[in-house]
Amino acid sequence: MIHARNLPFVTTLAIFIIAYGLCVLQFPNMLSTRVIGNLLTDNAFLGIAAVGMTFVILSGGIDLSVGSVIAFTSVFVAVMVGSFGVHPLTAFLAALVISTLFGCLMGAMIRYLMIPPFVVTLAGMFLARGAAYLVSTQSVPITHEFIDTMLGFYIRFPGGGRLTLLAMVMLIVFAVGIVVASRTRFGANVYAIGGNLQSAELMGVPVGATTIRIYALSGFLSGLAGIVYTLYTSSGYSLATVGVELDAIAAVVIGGTLLTGGVGLVAGTFIGILLQGLIQTYIVFDGTLSSWWTKIVIGILLFVFIVLQRTIIWYSDRRLAERQLKEV
Amino acid sequence: MTWFTRRLRRLAPQLAALAIILGIISLIAPGFLTISVQNGRLYGSLIDILVRAAPVALLTVGMTLVIATRGIDLSIGAVIAICGAVAATLITDGYPLPVVIAVSLGVGIVCGLWNGILVAVLDIQPIIATLILMVAGRGIAQLITEGVILTFNDDTFAALGSGALAGIPIPIYLWVGTALIIGLLMRRTALGFLIEATGINRRAASLAGVRARFLLFSAYAISGLCAAIAGMIVTADIRGADANNAGLWLELDAILAVVVGGTSLNGGRFSITASLIGALIIQSINTGILVSGFPPEFNLIIKAGIIIVVLTLQSPAIITLFGFIKASRRSDKLNHGTKEATR
């Protein structure tokens, strides 16, 4: 028996498997490890950012600054390495520290100034994008021996596919994210805050510290996503990754997480990312469809999942009411 | 007179912010405040602000109503793209102007009603419900323009964006007119009051006999309608429909304008005038940075900085703090007074 709360996740999984099956029937080549390897690599940065977004949404918040932070990190790293000759590892570390502090600051504003997350992260989105413009408005190429070795590192699948370092980073982030969400005190606190802020506060959940940590985590993962994006494109550009936060939110919702917070799984987000990647891959394979179909299909999927979630909540509410009526 | 002073007190923070920002810009850029007449049309940076503010101001009118119902409408940027694409397609196909305008407005209302169905009937959280059209809308606009930037050459339609009537540019008439009509509709009838009731507590309002569902529908429909007018202005201005960039992120500017205008995101009391001043503040910052001669790289960071300062000053925490200081001062005075009396 599937618990009603997990039904969206199971549905997403089923839809993904069926959709993939249909794609393979039409284009048998889509089953190859090459396609799977590329799908993971192409969506690595989006997946990493989506893990952070999952935690934010589980807590009942939202983070609109993700795309801008990715752009800032990529430009920052590219300029540090390309123009100032800093070692990539140092640049990565600095970028991660900046993006994490940025997240902390937004979390503190949300908690202590009591401004809604939507507005705070919106201002954060402008700020991070503005900071990226300040660093450079050019597309900065990046070449370094160390980065070449990083990009050259991969595990070969049978059949010619490659599991690149970028894909590995994403898979590790997802694995850690799943463990943190379901097996740690921090994870439990996030669910508690998302479920009911007041109850959580009365139960003694450290709401302030947890809120700041959630946005710091999202900032950190956006920074990491930015680094992965820099490696993926071998350059940094301040106009890149506009609207990535929407893709991340879509992946989280399609993965079965409730936007009201408190219910959802990090693993669902992974399936959401794969589903989005699958749509793009299908459009590439088909060749005649234009890329804007991606957006329309994602919109339709969003609609289907939201209505599904609505029905489940409505249904479980009614069952609860019936049970209470019987007891009376 | 009390009505007037009460209005002034409500609008004072926004008016002060606007005056300070305009003052700073005119200090940095001399000639900012001059308005000249050329070819029978008004020119100058201030006029420019009023013209450029048209799309955001129109969106702000609709957004204020939606936010007053405790909702939010993320889709209006995409609706601009859709309506722009529809208008441009019809113009290139040779339809007469009234048909083009009517159909574009109709499409905007349909988009708004779609959001209304999701929010009012299916009871979906507004932020997610409108996210669907925000994501899919640009794809739909691309479908309509078949993936190209559709340009046209029709001077009467282009006049909506760049023409002037009696010396005043037409976009100004459009946004001021729309705001006046909707503002009067809200405040001279009970509609605005009922929308506030719905925003504060939808259930209580429904139980008291307010048709909350109808009000939600009309708020989203008006938002769609305003976006359609804005879409036509944007399209007429560049004489083309750009499905990717028309109205991009304008919904965020509109939300900021409403928040800067002091309407709470939690619904309830709203002021369209204050929101419009908020929109003018945002546009003054944009234009001001341009005429001040800062490198364009600084645009966003200055804008973000000003917005963060305004938001912090308006945040519930700071307001509570001020209220606390004021209250403690008053009680000090009161204590002092009683001491005097006992003596």
Automatic annotation (TrEMBL), chain A:
The chain crosses the membrane at residues 6-27, 39-58, 64-84, 91-112, 118-142, 163-181, 212-232, 244-276, 296-316. It comes from the Bacteria. Keywords: Cell membrane, Membrane, Sugar transport, Transmembrane, Transmembrane helix, Transport. It is a multi-pass membrane protein. One of its GO terms (cellular component) is plasma membrane. It is found in: Cell membrane. GO terms for molecular function: transmembrane transporter activity. The keyword Zinc does not apply. It comes from Rhizobium wenxiniae. This is Simple sugar transport system permease protein.
From TrEMBL, chain B:
GO terms for cellular component: plasma membrane. Keywords: Cell membrane, Membrane, Sugar transport, Transmembrane, Transmembrane helix, Transport. It comes from the Bacteria. It is found in: Cell membrane. Its main location: membrane. It is a multi-pass membrane protein. Pfam families: BPD_transp_2 (PF02653). The keyword Membrane applies. InterPro entries: ABC_transp_permease. This is Simple sugar transport system permease protein. It comes from Rhizobium wenxiniae. The lineage of its organism: Bacteria, Pseudomonadati, Pseudomonadota, Alphaproteobacteria, Hyphomicrobiales.
